[in-house]
Automatic annotation (TrEMBL):
Coiled coil: none annotated. SUPFAM superfamilies: lambda repressor-like DNA-binding domains. One of its GO terms (molecular function) is DNA binding. InterPro entries: Cro/C1-type_HTH (IPR001387), Lambda_DNA-bd_dom_sf (IPR010982). Residues 91-119 are annotated as: Disordered. Residues 23-75 form the HTH cro/C1-type domain. This is XRE family transcriptional regulator.
């Protein structure tokens, strides 16, 4: 089951629900019981029940569950590194910085439109 959510426009509650359900689906796809995952993560089984229901859990519990599921490499993708500026990213990729707007083409001189064209 995939929970499609627009991360740019969804409410925080919708995001919490989608992330919790994704973690629970990963648990299920790996055929790990709630009790076993709770033991491995050091959280209560009721925390995993709330997770399965898409309810809010603490950030600490969320991270512990991700660690137990060996998903910690995905945590770095949550937030960009603030030490790397956008200009530096372009330079690292070997490109050159480009302006946001394109060059404007020459246009005919502007007129009111209520004058008659020259004959």
């Amino acid at each position: 089951m995939t929970h499609k959510v627009d991360f740019a426009t969804s409410s925080s509650q919708a995001l919490i629900e989608a992330l919790c359900k994704r973690l629970d689906e990963i648990r299920l796809s790996r055929n790990i019981s709630q009790a076993d995952l709770a033991d491995e993560a050091g959280v209560s089984r009721s925390t995993l029940t709330r997770l399965a229901d898409g309810q809010s859990i603490s950030l600490d519990s969320f991270i512990r569950i991700m660690q137990a599921l060996r998903l910690t490499d995905h945590l770095a993708a949550l937030l960009p590194d603030p030490a790397v500026r956008p200009v530096d990213r372009v330079r690292l990729d070997g490109g050159e910085r480009q302006r946001a707007s394109s060059k404007r083409s020459a246009t005919a001189p502007w007129a009111w439109g209520d004058t008659e064209p020259d004959a």
